[in-house]
Amino acid sequence: QVQLVESGGGLVQAGGSLRLSCAVSGRTFSGLQMGWFRQAPGKEREFVTAISWVGGSTLYADSVKGRFTVSREYARNTLYLQMNSLKPEDTAVYYCAASYRASSSYTAKTQSEYAYWGQGTQVTVSS
Asked: Of 116, 106, 105, 126, which Cα lies nearest the Cα of 37?
């Protein structure tokens, strides 16, 4: 079983930055393709970004492209989401997701493709 624990959320002014972390434990980090999703109040959970388990392939939602950067650090078994130029519409609970893949380059953007989920961390951007 894989456990995912997000951290780094908080309150920030528009234009500011935050870095979210997702610590992975329970099984090997290698082979684990990962992503970030978010859910704003009253809305469905949506895809934000994904990264392949090798780390060379990434995918971003149009709404965050150019502002958010996903990365992973094998030494720390951790996934990161660097969020810059934050906007009030980025306010949401951010979830880390993961699933083992045979392909080293595959990145999934649908929720049903992920087997493991964290509990979420709140990000609030004030205007």
From this structure: 116
Q: What is the pLDDT of residues 23-65, one digit of tens each?
A: 999 988 888 999 999 999 999 999 999 999 887 899 999 999 9
Question: Which whole-number Å values give the CA distances from 21 to 35, 91, 102, in the listed order?
Answer: 12, 17, 24
67: Cβ contacts below 8 Å, ≥ 6 apart: 83, 84, 85, 86
Calpha distance 13→8 (Å, rounded): 15
Number of H helices, E strands in the chain: 0, 11
Q: Nearest CA to 69 among 48, 53, 90, 88? A: 48
Question: Dihedral of CA 1/115/124/66: which sign?
Answer: positive
Beta carbons of 118 and 4 less than 8 angstroms apart: yes
pLDDT digits (tens, 9 = 90+) for 64-101: 999 999 999 999 999 999 999 999 999 999 999 999 99
Nearest to 95 by CA among 64, 66, 123: 123
